[in-house]
């Protein structure tokens, strides 16, 4: 912790991440504070004949009614979309990372401790999952979810949300599982584990009370590097049109805003900057945490 | 060695069968009714739906359907639908009901574009990554080293698609520094058009992927330059260039091969972002397009072919690894 605290980059990145988390948590409060609403646009009154917004940028000056302007075509408020986009992004990323980490730890512990046939089966399963990139899984599952729930938009919203989390979890646990398995294989031969077994400590207690505390460092490092990867993945998938449907997401806004990059740059910049700043801050923070835990990697 | 290769191949085939079963299960159990996806919404009568179900063989038990589906890998199939019959030549992974063509051949026609993107990108990131990594390692601790390390850390932290998207919007659409991107056959349209259309995608892949190669090769090179045999080589009075190239580099290149093999497979399987952003008509774009049209046979074929690339690349890397590094024993 001391090493982390003396790292200026880490402090700045941590501050940025905390701000984004606060934005995500208090998104409903912030939207009410600014007097804006999600998905409240009315194309007939909010956009002109060229489908550009009638108030705010790019054709009219700044207005408090819509601090980041309205979206072309739909007239939705950009600030509200952005705030809730942060919420979607961080919610998906944190839920997926937590579960992927838990599954990785459990499977790694079981594989490393059991050895024998169970270890071989688990290693094979890990190899199978490693040969399936999440992009392909998302591509395969997205149309199915849409087909199944297309007549129920209320359910579709949550179905895409949870199927995305599910995909990110089942394609995200393998690296940590391998790492933990390797650690367990080397730790289980150490004296304190042997002593615990001789004393008749139950296996579960050996796993969670003796082995796990020795593996805090790799787990924390893996967690802090998985989080930005999943934020990147979520925004990327919704940019490709196979992410969440029916709720605000930065990637979706980027996809919609690309054609307007020269006529309405602010529309594109808001979500691009959101993804950029959050992912870079999380990544650099993760690097700093790794360096702090591992004295061998020096910048 | 031979036994190892055979065992790896068998394991690879097992993985592919597992993937094909998963894909099959997703597509044939996932939706309420796969036939609905093929039925035009406005003219979908119950009778037509029944017909479709029968023609697609959806009224038969699942294992039989799976065997039928997989039989396309060994023989040509003949698929009938709605009064028309379509020949699906070997290898047959189904027929796209939106385009009415064999999905394998549709995707295979787009393979050159995807391969060009991946191979050109790989050459770029290998050159940029290895050169900057080795350059930094030889000048360890200097300003140049620190600049390379921190730049690669920073670029590594940026999502690739944002980098590529902004580059495309500003360098191609805004400033016009690069010609409009896209795939042109080097044989039909000439090599200049081919290179011009892919130059920016290659460069962006090169910059984005080079960071981890720079980091890996720098680390490996720093370790190698501290080895005793490098000191011996220097003491013998060998030229510094020879010491670096013939002695240190050979040891440093090993970890690079592993990540390169995997990266290349993932590139082949998923140049999705590159193809979408730069508008290159490759396999990835065909897969994304199929998602928009809910063309299930196309998506399953795309998933299977991509998984096959990754499995094959994994095996090739493991074998190459033992050839390059004699310390790795295959048993």
TrEMBL record, chain B:
Keyword Flavoprotein: no
Domain of life: Bacteria
Signal peptide (residue range): none
A biological process from GO: transmembrane transport
Membrane association type: Multi-pass membrane protein
Subcellular localization: Cell membrane
Gene Ontology cellular component list: plasma membrane
Entry protein name: ABC transporter permease
Species per Swiss-Prot/TrEMBL record: Nocardioides agariphilus
Organism ancestry: Bacteria, Bacillati, Actinomycetota, Actinomycetes, Propionibacteriales
């Amino acid at each position: 912790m001391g090493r982390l605290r003396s790292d200026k980059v880490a402090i700045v990145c941590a501050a940025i991440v905390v701000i984004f988390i606060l934005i995500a948590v208090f998104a409903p409060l912030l939207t009410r504070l600014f007097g804006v609403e999600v998905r409240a646009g009315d194309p007939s009154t909010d956009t002109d004949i060229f489908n550009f917004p009638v108030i705010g940028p790019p054709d009219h000056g700044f207005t408090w009614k819509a601090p980041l302007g309205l979206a072309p075509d739909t007239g939705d408020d950009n600030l509200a979309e952005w705030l809730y986009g942060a919420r979607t992004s961080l919610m998906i990323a944190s839920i997926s990372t937590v579960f992927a980490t838990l599954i990785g730890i459990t499977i790694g512990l079981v594989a490393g401790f059991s050895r024998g046939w169970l270890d071989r089966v688990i290693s094979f399963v890990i190899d199978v999952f490693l040969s399936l990139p999440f992009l392909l899984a998302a591509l395969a599952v997205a149309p199915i979810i849409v087909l199944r729930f297309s007549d129920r938009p209320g359910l579709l919203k949550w179905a895409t949300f949870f199927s995305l989390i599910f995909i990110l979890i089942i394609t995200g646990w393998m690296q940590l599982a391998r790492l933990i398995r390797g650690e367990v294989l080397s730790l289980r031969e150490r004296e304190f584990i042997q002593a615990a077994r001789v004393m008749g400590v139950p296996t579960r207690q050996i796993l969670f009370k003796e082995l796990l505390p020795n593996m805090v460092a790799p787990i924390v490092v893996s967690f802090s590097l998985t989080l930005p990867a999943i934020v990147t993945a979520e925004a990327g998938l919704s940019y490709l049109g196979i992410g969440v449907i029916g709720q605000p997401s930065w990637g979706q806004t980027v996809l919609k805003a690309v054609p307007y990059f020269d006529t309405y740059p602010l529309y594109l910049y808001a979500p691009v900057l959101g993804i950029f700043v959050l992912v870079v801050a999380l990544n650099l923070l993760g690097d700093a945490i790794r360096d702090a835990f591992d004295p061998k990697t020096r910048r | 060695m031979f036994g190892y290769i055979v065992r790896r191949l068998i394991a690879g085939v097992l993985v592919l069968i597992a993937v094909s079963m998963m894909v099959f299960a997703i597509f044939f159990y996932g939706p309420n009714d796969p036939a609905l996806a093929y039925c035009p919404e406005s003219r979908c009568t119950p009778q037509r739906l029944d017909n479709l179900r029968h023609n697609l063989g959806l009224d038969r038990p699942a294992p039989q359907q799976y065997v039928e589906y997989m039989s396309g890998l060994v023989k040509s199939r003949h698929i009938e639908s709605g009064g028309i019959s379509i020949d699906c030549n070997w290898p047959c992974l189904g027929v796209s009901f939106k385009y009415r063509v064999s999905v394998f051949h549709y995707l295979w026609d787009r393979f050159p574009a995807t391969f060009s993107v991946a191979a050109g990108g790989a050459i770029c990131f290998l050159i940029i990554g290895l050169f900057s990594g080795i350059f930094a390692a030889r000048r360890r601790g200097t300003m140049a080293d620190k600049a390379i390390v921190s730049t690669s850390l920073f670029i590594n932290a940026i999502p690739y698609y944002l980098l590529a998207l902004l580059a495309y919007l500003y360098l191609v659409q805004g400033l016009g520094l690069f010609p409009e991107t896209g795939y042109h056959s080097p044989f039909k349209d000439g090599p200049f058009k081919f290179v011009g259309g892919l130059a920016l995608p290659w460069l962006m892949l090169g910059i984005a992927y080079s960071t981890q190669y720079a980091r890996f090769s720098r680390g490996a090179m720093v370790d190698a330059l501290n080895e005793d045999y490098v000191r011996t080589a220097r003491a013998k009075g060998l030229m510094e260039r020879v010491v670096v190239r013939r002695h240190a580099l050979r040891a440093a290149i090993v970890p690079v091969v592993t990540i390169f093999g995997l990266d290349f497979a993932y590139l082949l399987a998923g140049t999705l972002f590159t193809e979408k952003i730069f508008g290159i008509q490759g396999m990835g774009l065909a897969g994304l397009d199929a998602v928009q049209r809910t063309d299930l046979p196309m998506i399953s074929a795309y998933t299977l072919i991509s998984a096959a690339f990754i499995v094959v690349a994994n095996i090739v890397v493991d074998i190459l690894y033992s050839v390059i590094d004699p310390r790795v024993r295959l048993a």
